[in-house]
Amino acid sequence: MSAVSMGDLGPGQRFARRAEVLGKSIYDHPPGVTVLSSGLAYPPCLPDVVHEAANAVSEHVASSLQYGPLMGLPDLREAITAFVREDGVKIGVDNVLVTYGAKNALDLACRVYLEPGDRMIVTTPSYMTALQIMRTHGVNFVGVGQDDEGLDVAELEEKLKRLQANGERMPKLLFDIPDFHNPTGITMSLARREALIELAKRYNFIILEDDPYRRIRFEGEPIPPLKALDDAGVVIALGTVSKILAPGLRLGWAIGEPEIIRRMAMQKADGGCNPMAQRIVVDLMRSNKMQNHIDELTAEMRLHRDAMIEAFAEHLPEAKIRTPNGGYFLWAELPEGVDAERVTELGVEHGVEVSTGRLCFAEDGPDNFLRMAYSFVSAEKIREGISQLGAAYRQYKAEA
User: Torsion angle of alpha carbons 4, 6, 10, 15, nearest 10°?
Assistant: First the structure.
């Protein structure tokens, strides 16, 4: 049923600044296109949670269908501590807050730390939805470049020195995705991670470490997460089951010093997160089912990544591609001067949706990048979609 228009709202509506522009949501997709723009879960790989859901509403019905504890179910907080301990993060349950995904955890951290006009450090480019969340808090961005080792710590240090020497407001927070960065796919080196933590200690800022894809690794040896290297409480780790289980469960967590975590909890408008979903995740984490699922998902995503890279080589060889060692996303650089936004518009006409890289820059950035996700559709559909993207690019070149 379509929405019913109530007529022109007129000038009497006094919207907040953040709601003045009614733009297009990145979660809306044109009908009939191959969606390569969003990190949605691959439907054939969604886990079977029938047993866990039945257990939640039988053995645990009183807690599953009641309001949940503010900090999260104790069983889930314990399961999360065991999960991250496998990566060397040694914490207790008092360090864990259950949230509605990592984006909710990011928003809560921003609520705790930021006043309008505060500075926040981000990579250029960065995760587009995280940038949207930060903007709602009225931040001023400090953009820092990346290379093959991740965030350029030397560049960041020079910017911090300059701000301090000029007596300007210093950044309170830094946001980054060290493993299989969204959108670039870069993994930060161990040396950079250690140097970044030292910089956070010296200049008194908190690192928000977003870690949604760490377990989706195709090649290479894992590097300890920033939180595992944190000896001074300067890292808040943001986690989620959206990429390793199912986004519809809408559960994640924040890990940090107990005083910080409690303050984040007090900013929650929802109270305790969905306890039934929490109970399902507890059972999955405590069995071999979650690890088996991650193994199957990783194997499938490797096939999807390879299919996308091969399709680019065949249908759009002009693009420069960085091969990620894990995760969900591929970052493509088109030749200088190409308007990637126009290419994405033509792509929809040809039947494929990808994202313009412009959305991934906190401030004005280059116009010739594309971001693709290989997570949602089959390898066959990925090849078809990149073929359509190549046709769109050729049409763009013909019109230029």
Answer: -60
Mean pLDDT of 14-34: 73
Round to whole Å and give the CA distance between 226 and 235.
Answer: 7
**Range with lowest mean pLDDT among 187-191, 269-273, 358-362:** 269-273
pLDDT at 219 over 70: yes
Residue 158 tokens, joined: 């020079």
**Secondary structure of the chain: what % helix, strand, coil (to 5)?**
45, 15, 45
Whether the per-residue pLDDT at 1 is higher than 50: the answer is: no
Distance CA 77, CA 96 (A): 6
Could you give the CA distance from residue 95 to residue 98 in angstroms, rounded to a whole number?
A: 10
Pair of tokens at residue 123? 């990579």
**Calpha distance 374→133 (Å, rounded):** 24
- Reply yes or no on whether the pLDDT at 17 is more than 80: no
Give start and end residues of each alpha helix (H) in 287-378.
289-315, 340-350
CATH 3.90.1150.10, the chain: domain bounds = 32-46+291-399
Strand 329-333 versus strand 369-373 pairing type: antiparallel
Task: Give the integer Cα–Cα distance in Å for 215 and 239.
Answer: 11
pLDDT band at 387 (very low <50, low <70, confident <90, very high): very high
Q: Please, what is the Cα angle at 16 between 10 and 21, to 5 degrees? A: 65
Residues of the chain with CATH 3.40.640.10: 50-288
**pLDDT at residue 4 tops 60:** no
CB-based contacts of 95, cutoff 8 Å, min separation 6: 81, 255, 256, 257, 258, 261
Inter-residue contact 226 to 235 (CB < 8 Å):
yes
pLDDT band at 274 (very low <50, low <70, confident <90, very high): very high
Within 10 angstroms of residue 304's Cβ, the number of other Cβ atoms is 21
Q: Please check whether residue 235 is in contact with residue 213, taking contact to mean a CB–CB distance below 8 angstroms.
A: no
Please state the pTM of the whole predicted model.
0.94
Helix locations, 126-189, DSSP H = 128-135, 153-165
CATH architecture of the domain covering 50-288: 3-Layer(aba) Sandwich (3.40)
CA 95 to CA 234: how far, in whole Å?
Answer: 13
Classify domain 32-46+291-399 at the CATH class level. alpha beta
163-189: average pLDDT: 97
